[in-house]
């Protein structure tokens, strides 16, 4: 199928993009890896595409004030090669190679992944696990939203159709940072169930542990009952608690029961990663 006809405009700046988004039924175009597919399948028929790829300054990765800021237009492949991300955001570095395939990572953007909010996507879960923040600009001005409050429902975020996501910010990892990432997919690049985890080590204890699953609900899902059990070092109690934390629905990939079982398998793998100091 071909997309329905649409007009195209190239934004010169974030302010210009906001101006163009005042048109009814306009949609931002970043890497196009999700949007173009929805246009081609006519799941979406916007009248105007606002291309943000030429906006300067949104493709930077910056370490500042103990945080890593990743611009919305940073491509997945660029982030994968970044020494700053490898050092200061190791959870994101672990997750990136799992996103699709090299061709998708060459075009897809970090901002697009967060804005699209696919519940099975890796980066939204990582940003929630890291207790990160999302920077956006809306007609009324700039706004920072905690990742915990950003994901509202299935493909639904705190962004309105008039807003531009400009960056994400996550705390830079210190020497006590412990991270873990694992996912199960039938083929590499597909989606099914995954887990992103982050904590601070205090001897054998894990403080501030956040276990965030993807592919098991409408948004990234924190396993809040499993967290204290794993923080105390009781992996099997944490696996057991997942039955109360997660309620995955049956889908074309697997039944909810299979997904809950896989969530436990992933938790055991991630528990081993969390126990190791970064090399
Ligand atoms: C075959 C295939 C496999 C894939 N596998 C995976 C995978 O395993 N894991 C995964 O996470 N993703 C996967 N993806 C999706 C990929 O990561 C996309 O790049 C990402 O979801 C969207 O980023 P994008 O830059 O391409 O955004 P686009 O497709 O350009 O836009 C997606 C949506 O976000 C909005 N948007 C984009 N940028 C902004 C912004 N800055 N501010 C506000 N709104 C914005 C757009 O208007 C649009 O509604 C896959 C895609 C394909 C085609």
Number of strands: 14
Bound molecules: flavin-adenine dinucleotide
What percentage of the residues does DSSP assign to strands (E)? Answer: 25-35%
How can the largest sheet be summarized? 5 strands, antiparallel
Q: Counting H and I runs of at least 4 residues, what is the number of helices?
A: 12
Can you walk through the features of this model?
By secondary structure, this protein is of the alpha+beta class. It has helices at 14-20, 35-40, 76-81, 83-88, 90-95, 102-107, 110-116, 122-129, 147-150, 226-231, 235-245, 256-274; strands spanning 7-10, 26-29, 48-51, 61-64, 67-71, 133-138, 141-146, 151-153, 156-157, 164-171, 177-184, 193-202, 205-214, 221-222. The strands form four sheets. Strands 4-5-10-6-7 form a five-stranded antiparallel β-sheet, sandwiched between helices. Helix 11 runs antiparallel to helix 12. The chain is globular. The protein starts with 6 loop residues before the first strand and ends in a 5-residue tail after the last helix. The structure holds flavin-adenine dinucleotide. Residues 27-35, 37, 52, 72, 99-100, 104, 108-109, 111-113, 115-116, 118, 121-123, 159, 164-165, 189, 191 line the site of flavin-adenine dinucleotide.
């Amino acid at each position: 199928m071909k997309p329905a006809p649409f007009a195209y405009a190239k934004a010169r700046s974030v302010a210009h993009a906001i101006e163009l988004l005042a048109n009814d039924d306009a949609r931002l175009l970043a890497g196009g890896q999700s949007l173009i597919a929805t246009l081609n399948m006519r799941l979406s028929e916007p009248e105007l595409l606002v291309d943000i790829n030429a906006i300067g300054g949104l493709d930077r990765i910056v370490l500042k004030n103990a945080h890593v800021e990743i611009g919305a237009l940073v491509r997945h492949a660029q982030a994968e090669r970044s020494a700053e991300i490898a050092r200061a955001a190791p959870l994101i570095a672990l997750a990136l190679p799992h996103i699709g395939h090299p061709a998708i990572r060459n075009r897809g953007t970090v901002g697009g992944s967060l804005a699209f909010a696919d519940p099975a996507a890796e980066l939204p879960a990582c940003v929630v696990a890291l207790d990160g923040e999302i920077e956006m600009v809306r007609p009324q001005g700039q706004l920072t939203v905690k990742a915990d409050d950003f994901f509202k429902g299935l493909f639904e975020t705190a962004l309105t159709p008039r807003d531009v996501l400009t960056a994400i910010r996550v705390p830079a990892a210190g020497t006590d940072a412990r991270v873990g990432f694992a996912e199960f997919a039938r083929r590499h690049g597909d989606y099914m169930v995954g887990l992103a985890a982050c904590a601070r080590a205090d001897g054998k204890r894990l403080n501030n542990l956040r276990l965030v699953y993807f592919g098991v609900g409408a948004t990234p899902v924190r396993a809040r009952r499993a967290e204290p059990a794993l923080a105390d070092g009781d992996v099997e109690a944490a696996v057991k608690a997942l039955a109360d934390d997660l309620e995955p629905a049956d889908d074309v990939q697997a039944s909810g029961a299979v997904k809950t079982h896989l969530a436990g398998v992933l938790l055991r793998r991630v528990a081993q990663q969390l126990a190791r100091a970064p090399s």
